């Protein structure tokens, strides 16, 4: 008979990091094939061809295949196989690496599965093995049971024992009586090493969001295996880290990320400063030359345009008034006044470009405006003495004269304002020269006083003229926030609406009705006028303080009493690239005892042990004591330091006083399940525990529901 093959249908005792697939011939001392139980299907970058990669891909494949778009896929949902297409890829790869690559696999197969595996999953696995690979027989066994039997032979645990298997995705508790599992008393919690890794990854990502790209799944697993532990008392350990004692510092670990210190900035040498100054001066000279050339070109253009307009005016002097429109039809102008206005604008632009004084400019403008006033002869003539065409021309001349006078008044007001500003600046400068310190102090006091006034006015404008007694505006209604002019507008609108509701609507029939719109459009509220004088004065004082006091910081906007804080950026240091593991070291594995911390409303390890003992059918007190006296730990997640002591303390709290409690761990929690199955497969009685292909075709899949492997041969 061909030697049996042991195949791990589920991860043997489920490793701490990833579910592993292990193949070997029965009776071998070491596994022959070990790889991660995942399949990836990347595309070739050049040809687009899709290939299947089982296990971890070689980093060299990244040169040829795009592995980023196709993530790794597993055949398992928890510890149950449900993707048999992926499982077929895994079995092909495992059998091929063992040399069993013929058309049929003429070897019995022992395959592991989870506790109380669904019949649908077991039947689909049998269908795959029998019909695809043509194996002669198959046997299904629980991985934790194989690990228990192997350690029982080594004398680690007793015949009556309680096996607890915290694995990768689930945690199982199986009671053994007389060396056989009692599945009626078994328990399962959907918490394992996967959830611990994911929880640690989330905590580190929240703690260091700017290093999230560094927290890959593989790196977080390494950190978990290297640094995590289970504390006997979580609350006292957390208080220890909260107080920041010396013991907590000793338990803290740090992971240094790659970091290159920035190059030290040396002060520039005198030669470098001189070189930069020469370059800056050269650039400034070039800009000045360009500006001068542009200015000369602009002056030439304006002079040519001014000469053309003066020549056109000289020609218009020789043309009759009635022939002027036809004479100007070939130009862009329609009247002599428009030509004169254009000549005035060009003359102003030319004087501005040449930098002539403003006094001369205003004087010249006044002379031009006086000359223009003589060009409106129809204004003083009564309307009854004018023809319709002359009336139309009179209205046009009146409009032009009014516009010209308005411009002149605006210019005069602007000129007077500039003179007043210049006079104030001269007075301030004289005061500053007499006593600089006193002048600066007075200017600051005035700035503070005006600032408070403007802030108070803005608060009153927003909240009304009511205060709460503390100088601060109180909470008032919308009606109280309205100004006097706004309240008057509201009264007029209300009155008009009330009057329109009485009988026939005759509003607008009289001229007096339209005065209502004029009244509503007026706003005599001081707060709604143009720029306030106090605000303008505050702006002037602020600019003056900036000139003479380098330490003065103006307010960013009126109404704020604190200067804006400019964010300061410091260069990243070595400490910024350190990942510190403190409470995370024991907080993440603690979910094995408190699954509700991550939203899983199930029991922890210690509570599961008590539930399993209570589920046993009518066992005596002596049997319960024998079970608690030999609590057997297996599975990758029991490798955390301190788990045996914590589990013993938790079970002691739920058991009667004086009950014997002893917790032992497997010799190799990860591979003892494989070793137990390999020893079981070479036993002479192993063929009697298999399910043959003949039984499969004769009895069908339903017979697998009653199939159960006997572990004591």
TrEMBL record:
CDD domains, sorted: ASKHA_NBD_Arp5
Residue ranges of coiled coil: 299-356
Entry keyword Coiled coil: yes
Pfam families, sorted: Actin (PF00022)
Main localization category: nucleus
GO cellular component terms, semicolon-separated: nucleus
Keywords: Coiled coil, Nucleus
Gene3D superfamilies named in the record: 3.30.420.40, Actin, Chain A, domain 2 (2.30.36.70), Actin, Chain A, domain 4 (3.90.640.10)
Region annotation Disordered: where it falls in the sequence: 400-437
One annotated GO biological process: actin filament-based process
Start-end of Basic and acidic residues biased regions: 404-435
Subcellular location: Nucleus
SMART domains the UniProt entry points to: ACTIN (SM00268)
UniProt cross-references to InterPro entries, sorted A to Z: Actin, ATPase_NBD
Family, as annotated: Belongs to the actin family. ARP5 subfamily.
Protein name: Actin-related protein 5
Organism: Carya illinoinensis (Pecan)
